[in-house]
Specification:
Blueprint (H helix, E strand, L loop, with lengths): L3 H4 L6 H24 L1 H9 L6 H29 L3 H19 L7 H24 L1 H4 L5 H32 L4 H26 L14 H14 L2 H30 L5 H29 L1 H21 L3 H29 L5 H29 L4 H20 L3 H14 L3
Helix pairs in contact: 2-6, 2-8, 2-9, 4-5, 4-6, 4-10, 4-15, 5-6, 5-9, 6-15, 8-9, 8-12, 8-14, 10-11, 11-12, 11-14, 11-15, 11-16, 12-13, 12-14, 13-14, 13-16, 15-16
Length: 433
Amino acid sequence: MSKVPRTLAPGVRAVEVWSWAMLDFANSGYTTVVLTAVFSAYFVGVVAGGAAWATLAWTAALSASYLLVMMTLPRLAALADAHAAKRRLLFLSVLGCVSGTLILSRVGAGNVWLAVLGIVFSNYCFSLGESAIASFLPELAQREALGRVSGWGWGLGYVGGLISLAIALMIVTRGSNLGFDAIHTVPWVMVATACLFLLATVPAWFLLKERAVATGQSARSTLGAIKHAWIETGGRFTEFRRLLLCIVSYQAGISVVITLAAVYAEQVMGFDMPRTILLIVAVNVTAGLGALLFGSFQDRVGHRLALRVTLLGWILTAFLAFLAVQEWLFWVAACLAGLCMGTSQSAGRAMVGLMAPSSRLAAFYGLWTFSTQLAAATGPLVYGMITWVNNGNQRFAMLCTGVFFVFALFVLGRLSLDKAIAERDASASTGHV
């Protein structure tokens, strides 16, 4: 407990930070079960009946949700800052994601449009919530402890992913033993995931406080907010713009891993379903450990150096996956990817908090979310195009994924945290952001 006063912001209790971290717990349960491990395969194999267009329909639905986020989040974030309404945005997104997941529980064979509606709506709300959760971080942690507290959230998030996956596997396995197939078990998995999501957010409803002061500034139109934010970061916040470019690049690579790791394992390495599930578990475990252990390291050595080490790890991961012919080497690459995943995402969120003016937390974290959604929409698409052009050569596509991390490392090398902090403080002293 002696570390708490040096870690948490004045007036913040440890139980409040725990309630905030439980929001990451909820989010990771949704992404692990719905986007990665269960519903994606259910959509392609059962809902769409394994049709040739099934995978395209799935990725198109996700892209549509990311596009909606990019088009609406800047205005919603500006409204949250103007009215000190981050909590309102957060909990509306929670209710939306839970409702969307319950919609997915009603999807059966042939219900393609209902499935598309459910995934677009639930993933849209999830993404809004992710931005809102991150915007609370600078209010909860001391600036010298942003990495540590961010790591707590990411680490607990991966625990949530593992627990949600364990519940899903238990339902599917139990149903299978009783003679039920996916069309009967997956809907119950969606119900369980939605219930666990809502339950994990309950502490924050009562404990997480809104400390922001309303700015009173009128919110621009969506396109106007995007344009203003981009001009603003290029003028008074040049280092933050560099950070956004770095984040877009490395998150594009991470999105490839999240979206296509199971596909790569099955198509290239010949994994069967049990080994693929074990792979997802291993990635989640190492990602959680990475986020928890790397947070303190990040605060000690500095955010910039910590992120640089992580990006080097990602480059090595892509190269090992490209080289892997024997299964053990692919497992090494997968575990290294997990470590890098937790650390790089935690580091990026902490660096945004370090650079963001206190009066514009929602807007700046909105830009962060905008960047991650742009990366999520482009990274897997580039991977798919490279695979298609090279006659299905996923090994070469995985090697090319390393370019995302190389470019991010180049951009990071030109970023100055001292200048970024000076820009933030200058904005606060003049009262203009």
